[in-house]
Amino acid sequence: MTARTLFKNARLLDPATALDRKGDLLVADGKIAAVGARVQADASGAAVIECHGHCLAPGLVDMRVELREPGREHEETMESGAAAAAAGGITTMVALPNTEPAIDDVALVEFVARRSREVGVHIRTYAAATRGLKGREITEIGLLSAAGAVAFTDANSAIADALVLRRAFSYARTFDALIVQHPEEPSLAAGGHMTEGEIATRLGLSGITPAAEVMMVERDLRLMEITGARYHVAHVSTGAAIEAIRAAKARGLPVTCDTAPPYFALNETAVGEYRTFAKLSPPLRSENDRRAVVAGLRDGTIDAIASDHSPHPQDSKRLPFASAEAGIIGLETLLPLTLELVHNGHLTVLQALRALSQRPAEILGLPAGRLAEGTPADLVLFDLDRPGRIDVDSFRSKSKNSPFDGRPVQGRVLKTMVDGRFVFGGDS
Amino acid sequence: MTGTADSLAFPHRHLLGIEGLSPDDITLLLDKSEGYVEQNRQADKKRSLLRGRTIINVFFENSTRTRTSFEVAGKRLGGDVINMSVAGSSIKKGETLIDTAMTLNAMHPDVLVVRHHESGAVHLLAQKVNCAVVNAGDGSHEHPTQALLDALTIRRRKGGLQGLVVAICGDILHSRVARSNIHLLNTMGARVRVVAPRTLLPAEIERMGVEVFHDMGLGLKGADIVMMLRLQTERMHGSFVPSIREYFHFFGLDARKLAAAKADALIMHPGPMNRGVEIDSEVADDIDRSLIRHQVEMGVAVRMACLEVLTRELGNGPPVT
What we know:
The complex is a heterodimer.
Chain A: E1 4-14, E2 19-28, E3 31-36, E4 47-50, E5 55-58, E6 60-65, H1 78-87, E7 90-95, H2 106-116, E8 122-125, H3 141-147, E9 152-153, H4 162-174, E10 178-181, H5 186-189, E11 194-195, H6 198-203, E12 207-208, H7 211-227, E13 230-233, H8 239-250, E14 255-259, H9 262-265, H10 287-298, E15 304-305, H11 334-343, H12 349-364, E16 379-389, E17 408-418, E18 421-424
Parallel strand pairs in A: 1-4, 1-5, 6-7, 7-8, 9-10, 10-13, 11-12, 13-14, 14-15
Antiparallel strand pairs in A: 1-2, 2-3, 5-16, 16-17, 17-18
Chain B: H1 23-40, E1 54-59, H2 65-76, E2 80-85, H3 97-105, E3 111-116, H4 121-126, E4 132-138, H5 144-158, E5 165-169, H6 176-187, E6 191-195, E7 211-213, H7 216-219, E8 225-228, H8 244-251, H9 255-258, E9 266-268, H10 281-284, H11 292-312
Helix pairs in contact in B: 1-5, 1-11, 2-11, 5-6, 5-11
């Protein structure tokens, strides 16, 4: 690896240091070799990329992705997921353990690590917090951590039993492991298919009270306090849960959370007349909750934005609403949908990038999300302003279940680099 | 109730719900139904309006009454009516609803009459076929022909719907009949109340334009129409009411509770009734007060009117006489 690449005349953006200035960045041997106003000095022989003032930032770290390998490779594989990630400017993604079989033992974590080396994008994995994601017996958190699991979660199942979660928290603390929870009280949400309220009532669909989210979060925060564990709430979507997390952070608890673009880009009205592409878990919420998500991102209560990429084939969406699978793909829409918040004045571009790369990397302890010399050259070059429409047919993901097809957006990924090699846009 | 309704066209390809129908649409259907009520009372009930037309009843959920009513309606108009039994068919073997729709569509039906246990399933099917689709009940969503036949029944007894106080009582949460009736009665200017224990009311039901009561005495006070709903035990995931005994005590319709309504208040029920659960036999069988058997009669006429307007929309039907 002697390849050297010089990005010239870029808008350098590094949320960790609040860097936002015009300049150059030199990549050598897969690492960032120099960042600054001019770094031509030792750039002789490097391939030069003229950036025309476009944004050069740390590659996105997507902390919540479902890849269907092993088990359901017709929906997504690590290759197709990595290609989609690269097109979306994502250089590291963290896979959920809800595969078949579930990633709950060391061999499966090693399998992901091995497969990750065969694709162009870094893939890390969570391990299940409980065996088979069943919520009863905790997994080998120590051995799984040593094998490379970045954190522990039962994916889209909440760990409902308070005693099981208490023990998972206590045990995880031994290894400083992080537990990630799907925030929904399952007995309260049972049988529901969308958020409770007028729209569900009109459609004759069983509703889920939004309180199911804050109830689980508040209970878990109590368990955190008695165990001293680290805790991360996945895809928060209600104002009440965000407020509970805001208050817990103010008390000094080590709680973090993320959300996903549908929870700030859509509300429950997207269900329309039974649009199954708008069926998610947690479900799309009221407009007030959507605004609360935006406010939570703005004040930093919500640390991260993840794609919550959930590939499903047509067959599982072309069903009556109640029978359809929940979840949408998101790798290739993560950046443009987040940039809507920038163009609408809710976030600065550095705030957006902090939620997309720096914070998820910090929460999971990953060596990514920085533009520092000596760190891996995982980079995204994007045009902040270029208008276009989301075109699902052009997506590299194997599945096409997105409610955003045709949505006008501003911002486009031009090039994505992982460890100094272009994985997207390198030939242009 | 205008005599010119016949000159209006029904501007919808399908009848998927009452929501979205205008007062004119509803009046057109009710006026046409009136004619069929008279026809159905003649010795010769048969017409040839639907000669050459194929109507397929596709019932994913068991029903005898509604299916038979549609079958009679189609046959009296001279159409060929086929009942597709779904139980035991390929659908049970994993064929999707859309596959079924495509298969049926390839047989060139003119109308599909569809009942399904899931809300929205009939909409989904309607998107995939070229013919007209009538929703014969989808989950807890809508049952438009039931609301139309209820409206026709009321209109014939009360002369109209405007200004009437209608109390819909019982399992509103799971009821497609309630939702369709709320839409229709509101559209036609009636005042709608719902009366139920809180566990059987969906969230924000008041935003559909109803007054909400949890007490039969208050909810029925001054009502012109008392519409009872079946307590749909088969749909219940958990325990919505503690016992039938308690439910009947507080929410079952009997002569004592009915006394709160207007002296000439009429009783309706979409059937089949659970006697002693939501309604006492004494009031259900009161021929002066109960419209329950009239509702069944109106059902055939209303479904004939629906089949007529939807096949006329196809634009290649025989001339209407």
